[in-house]
Design goal:
alpha/beta; TIM Barrel; seven-stranded parallel beta sheet; two-stranded antiparallel ribbon; 16 helices
């Protein structure tokens, strides 16, 4: 019997698998299992870790996504952006800090060990690692450089600057890439295994493939080279439609490519399945949140059927498991992976 970490490493190595690893992208939704309030856990590493561990132990998936908030949001806050804190929802950036090149001088790469919000997530990671031991893989979100640049500027401004001020975008991405690498190094030191660079703004739902190649690809490649040299497993998550850039995503150096539900796993397997491990891609809203266990099981089986042959597959959701998702639905997804 392989340990959970060995199962993930086997998938990453593109080896044939009898037992398909299942790792839903579930973080803040685990508060439903403990009764912990969202805002309370955002300020308490112990409560956040307690909920994440509860989800892992009750549902039985093969890896834990450590931390509740999007890494690019907490990094943007650490770099000076203002935040909104809803009572029962995920915090978000309310205002950026970069309007022109002069503003770049004020933007500093924060120290993860002294920045309170980043440090809290490192403490959460250490608590989880101590509880689950070394045989359970811990997935860790790292801010995508283009997405973080968009938060520092404002996403609408980023889109205009890609056309009107490309040098400003590149200068900002150089800073955000350094911030991502600093945070990745800290998370690896605290017990993380898989570093998942989340870069939703790099999606073809927002920018063209050419824009991806110009403004996202070189910085992703730099980050993944760094993670690999530090003995971490680099993973890439880009929401939305990424079909036109699958080859370029594989070229970044990521060893796992997380795909959203609108991407055909069958097509992705043919294009890049011989190069990288594919992870995905049950629809988190229409199926997991609004469906029933039978539908979740059926869709999960279809993902396995389309992608698992020959190895190199992790069954997962296309994106974050939404708040109020029925626990039984997530259990049905895990059961589909076990009954292969």
């Amino acid at each position: 019997m392989l340990t959970r970490l060995e199962k993930i490493k086997s998938a990453v190595s593109l080896k044939s698998q009898k037992d398909i690893p299942v790792v839903p992208q579930i973080t803040y939704t685990t508060h439903q299992l403990t009764g912990v309030k969202m805002l309370d856990a955002l300020k308490d590493a112990g409560k956040m870790a307690q909920a994440l561990i509860a989800g892992f132990e009750e549902i039985g998936y093969d890896g834990i996504y450590s931390g509740w908030e999007s890494s690019f949001n907490i990094m943007a806050e650490a770099m000076g952006c203002e935040m909104k804190y809803p009572e029962n929802d995920v915090p978000c950036v309310s205002r950026g800090i970069i309007k022109n090149s002069e503003d770049l001088e004020k933007v500093k790469v924060p120290d993860p060990y002294t920045s309170p919000r980043l440090l809290l997530h490192l403490e959460t990671l250490k608590i989880i690692r101590k509880h689950v031991g070394l045989d359970v893989p811990i997935f860790n979100y790292i801010p995508g450089p283009l997405t973080l640049a968009g938060l520092l500027m404002g996403t609408d401004s980023l889109m205009m600057n890609i056309i009107k001020k490309p040098d400003l975008v590149h200068s900002t991405c150089r800073i955000t890439a350094r911030a991502a690498m600093s945070y990745a190094e800290a998370k690896l030191s605290c017990g993380g295994d898989i570093m998942v660079v989340a870069d939703p703004t790099a999606s073809c739902s927002l920018i063209s493939p050419k824009m991806f190649e110009t403004f996202s690809f070189p910085y992703l490649k730099e980050i993944f080279t760094f993670i690999s040299k530090k003995d971490g497993i680099p993973s890439l998550h880009i929401c939305g439609n990424t079909t036109p850039i699958l080859d370029k995503m594989a070229d970044t150096g990521a060893r796992i490519i997380e795909l959203d539900h609108m991407v055909s796993l069958k097509d992705a397997k043919k294009k890049i399945g011989h190069r990288v491990c594919i992870q995905g891609n049950v629809d988190p809203s229409k199926v997991l949140l609004m469906g029933d266990p039978e539908e979740v099981y059926k869709v999960s089986k279809k993902c396995i059927e389309d992608t698992a042959e020959g190895g190199g597959f992790i069954l997962s959701t296309g994106c974050e498991v939404p708040l109020n998702t029925p626990v039984e639905n997530v259990k049905a997804m895990v059961r589909a992976g076990r009954e292969t």
